[in-house]
Amino acid sequence: MAILKKLQRFVTDNPQGQGGQFYCDDNLLYLPQCFSEKQARELYSKLAMELRWRQEKIAMFGKQVLIPRMQAWHGNPESFYRYSGLDLIPQAWTPALLQVRQQLDTIAGTDFNAVLGNWYRDGQDSMGWHSDDEKALGRYPVIASASFGQERRFCLRHKSSGEKQTILLRSGSLILMFGSLQENWQHSLPKSAKPMQGRINLTYRTIVHPVKPKASNYE
Ligand SMILES: O=C(O)CCC(=O)C(=O)O
Ligand SMILES: [Fe+2]
């Protein structure tokens, strides 16, 4: 598979690839030091200010509940996305989002056209088990997921065998998900009982089949 070869080369040939490790049948690459500590700290502050953060409500057991994190959806104007039952309408790119996109486009060899920001304010914020397998992303999507701030556990489990993997996501690290990862594995970001600082995560995606919303969920 072309992308795996390209990423293997990136790990061996590039300082940003240092310590890179493949997981999940070679469909996930973890790069612990994609961004320097200083860059990661600066990006955290910029992203906290620049993005249009919202705490969305979703329907659960017939009730409207707040999701346990802040979220923001930015990208090209046509990058409509339905996620967790929410119609996401893209906000404009910001300087920090464009800066990160440029680096990730180069590494992944793609043109990401949207990004989902997740801001976990403390250890009580989390994301449940899911796969990013929406039709809008097409088959075998490439998703680049960058972490800034508090180190958190990222858990993966195989859909049929139940095999589990846990990766500690450092500040400045990057995860690349590709190939059949979303088809065969789910992932989650569990809560933690330990006191924790904030963490901002950016998952860059390519919307190939935009889902135009019927009604805006943005005021
Ligand atoms: O915060 C993370 O590392 C995971 C985010 C995620 O899985 C998603 O946005 O789909
Ligand atoms: Fe995800």
UniProtKB/TrEMBL annotation:
Q: Does the keyword Oxidoreductase apply?
A: yes
Name under which the protein is recorded: Alpha-ketoglutarate-dependent dioxygenase AlkB
What one GO molecular function would you report for this record?
A: ferrous iron binding
Q: Which residues form the Fe2OG dioxygenase domain?
A: 111-208
The UniProt annotation places substrate binding at F61, G62, K63, Y81, R82, Y83, D133
UniProt-listed InterPro entries: AlkB-like, AlkB-like_sf, ALKBH2, Oxoglu/Fe-dep_dioxygenase_dom
Q: Which cofactor does it need?
A: Fe(2+)
Give one GO biological process term.
Answer: DNA alkylation repair
